[in-house]
């Protein structure tokens, strides 16, 4: 009888530990509803001039009214008020993926442009750095996008695919970044998703989207009246907490106390 009692208690603890582990490792969207998180757009250059990484923040959106969180586009991208956007207020983190009702675009003047003279095809990058507000095991990143005649991503056989990077602390240069998954491209003249994943996940607090843009020089030039650089409607980052929550620790201690009391009661018998 005593052995059965101990076995029953051990089975209960094992079941709890197993359930806790499964719960902790169930990936959820770490962006939507995260009140601690924020993201920042960083320029990488202008008309071929490279910038130090993660130094010049900007707000996208111009001409056609594309925007993020109602913020105003700064045409020169050198602004004292450009900075982080909370997940709660940003358009990339509100779970709306319909590009006909909401999107972010208008990235001319911020791309690390590579190309020839005005009219040549050009391509480049800009960064969107996400701060998750804490350490998480990131398993998958999904970007919902739209590519079209006036909103171009790097697609097909051209250069500059979109890449995802992670970091445990705020990156100050590319040396602080670790590639997440494989670089990928959007599909031309299409609305869809680009997905990046890592088997087993990667522990990080910061995640950088280095978006690949492909258009003409005039469209990437800050003097252009067009609004180029592919539409983004949503970014979903999936993962789970890197460490157990305080409530999980409390339950573990509670089961430990239960087991301790049970063993003492058994010994008294």
Plain-language structure description:
By secondary structure, the chain is an alpha+beta fold. It folds into 2 domains: 44 residues; 217 residues, Jelly Rolls (Sandwich), CATH 2.60.120. Helices cover 19% and strands 33% of the residues. The protein is built from 3 helices and 10 strands. Strands 1, 2, 5, 6, 7, 8, 9 and 10 form an 8-stranded antiparallel sheet that branches. It has a two-stranded antiparallel sheet with strand order 3-4. Strand 3 and strand 4 form a beta hairpin. Helix 1 packs antiparallel against helix 3.
Concise synopsis of the structure shown:
The protein is an alpha+beta fold and 269 residues long. It has helices at 2-24, 217-220, 246-268, and strands at residues 28-29, 38-42, 45-46, 49-50, 85-86, 121-146, 162-167, 178-184, 191-216, 231-241.
Strand tally: 10
Category from helices, strands and their pairing: alpha+beta
Question: What is the correct CATH architecture of the largest domain?
Answer: Sandwich
Task: Please tell me how large the radius of gyration is.
Answer: 24 Å
Task: Report the order of strands and helices.
Answer: HEEEEEEEEEHEH
Count of the domains:
2
Provide the residue-averaged pLDDT. Answer: 76
Q: Write down the overall geometry.
A: globular
Number of H- or I-type helical stretches: 3
């Amino acid at each position: 009888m005593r052995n059965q009692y101990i076995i029953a208690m051990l089975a209960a603890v094992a079941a709890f530990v197993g359930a806790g582990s499964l719960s902790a490792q169930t990936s959820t969207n770490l962006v939507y509803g995260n009140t601690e998180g924020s993201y920042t757009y960083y320029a990488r250059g202008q008309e071929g001039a490279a910038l130090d990484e993660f130094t010049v923040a900007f707000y996208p959106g111009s001409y056609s009214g594309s925007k993020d969180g109602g913020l105003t586009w700064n045409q020169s991208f050198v602004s004292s008020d450009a900075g982080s956007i909370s997940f709660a207020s940003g358009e990339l983190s509100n779970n709306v993926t319909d590009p006909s009702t909401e999107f972010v675009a208008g990235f001319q003047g911020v791309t690390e442009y590579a190309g020839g003279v005005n009219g040549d095809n050009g391509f480049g990058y800009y960064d969107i750095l996400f701060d998750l507000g804490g350490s998480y095991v990131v398993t998958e990143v999904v970007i919902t996008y739209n590519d079209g005649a006036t909103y171009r991503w790097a697609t097909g056989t051209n250069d500059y695919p979109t890449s995802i990077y992670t970091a445990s602390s705020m990156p100050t240069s590319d040396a602080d970044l670790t590639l997440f998954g494989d670089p990928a491209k959007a599909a031309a003249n299409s609305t869809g998703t680009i997905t990046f994943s890592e088997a087993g996940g990667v522990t990080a607090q910061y995640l950088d989207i280095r978006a690949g843009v492909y258009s003409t020089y005039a469209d990437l030039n800050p003097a252009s009246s067009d609004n180029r650089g592919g539409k983004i409607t949503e970014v979903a980052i999936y993962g789970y907490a890197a460490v157990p929550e305080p409530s999980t620790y409390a339950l573990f201690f509670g089961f430990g106390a239960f087991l301790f009391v049970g063993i003492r009661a058994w010994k008294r018998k």
